[in-house]
Amino acid sequence: MKKWTKVQRQKIQIFRLITVGIFILFLSIGFMLGNIWFLRPDKSEVEKRELTSFPTFTFSTFMDGTYFSDISTWYSDTFVGRDTFIAMNQSLKQKYGIHSGEMMVGTLTQSDEIPEDSSQKKIKKDPVVPDQNTLQAEVTDKIMEGLYIEDGAAYGGYSFSQEAADTYIDALEKGAEKLDGITNVYSLLIPNNSGVILDDETCAKLGGSNQGQAIEYYFNSYDKVTGIEIYDTLKKHNDEYLYFRTDHHWTQQGAYYAYKSYCKLKGFKAEKLSDLPSYTFTPFLGTYYNELQLPEMAANPDTVYAYAPKSTNDMLYDDGSGNLIPWKVIQDVSTWNEGSGYYCFVAGDKPYAEIDNPEIEDGTSCVVIKESYGNCFIPFLVDHYDKVYYMDFRYTNYNIVDFCKEHNVTDLIVENNIQIIGSTDVASRFYELL
Q1: pLDDT category, 305, cuts 50, 70, 90?
Q2: Half-sphere CA count of 213, side-chain side, radius 13 A
Q3: Are 122 and 170 in contact (CB under 8 A)?
């Protein structure tokens, strides 16, 4: 057995101490970074979503253990450098595999047959409303469900769920009944790009449900709610730039046709796009690109064409803590990163925002309950109302019925992409709001 000299033993001990010291140093740095609150992100640019917020303490959540579970979810969802690590992981995935001109990503859920008669509704009694984290995760999953990729453009799938549809319809009808004689309630259901852009033969090959028939089922089931018809109009104009190729949203050109349909219902004179202040942001690589990182998408990025109101471009949004922050209806994002183009619209996905039109003082107002599809639709409404409010249903704590009564709101528009609202969890959320 080899015997070490005193000098050698001292060197070994010093080496061990240095090694342990370095390990402890890195461990300490990791621990400190993991617990420095102000360094933890609250939004993911790569995933295009708000990250889990720190839970509010209540005695009931403390006693049933959900408070600590929510802290654990917040901790794991907001680690420092999240976007950098996710981007690195996505980049590594592109180093292997062969990409063809056509491909499918994910699978569609089993579709229900769309009833021809709305009297066949099956109302779900006392739906379980998901918490905010579950709700956001479900929205994200629906966006990426059953994607069809063709020549660098992604098309979202759609599967009709009668339970989700009837839950949503029932929630809106109950809200409209409470607001009867006070606020007009409208439903804006936006089809996916697949149902508008792709031909019937391709859609049939991909499976899923017919979006036009599904929207018709919703609208025929309403009594006190008025549907804003846009599906046939979008189909007629599907040779225009109505949807992005690399992102799941429609463009403001697509939203313009919904605005014109709404103006027809209300008797408003629709503004011409050519008369509105305009902005262009390019290149734009959206949600689908951030998830898939396909080189053919990067080679053919999108462009965001944005149109501001004529009356004002000023607005206020709630930062989530009750503070109203001054912002722009159309914000200049030309110096932001290439994934930020869609954030130019109405400050993105905030719990609450308000826009005061200085040119109208007749007390008229509009509330839009929305997800991100509604962002590029809202600017068109500003020139027609004294005040425009929006609440993002994923983040707001307002009871919409109470808000409409307190503010004597003229019109309430409930906007949703049909794929997102096709989840029973998402549809159930409207029982809390209305």
Answers
A1: very high
A2: 15
A3: no
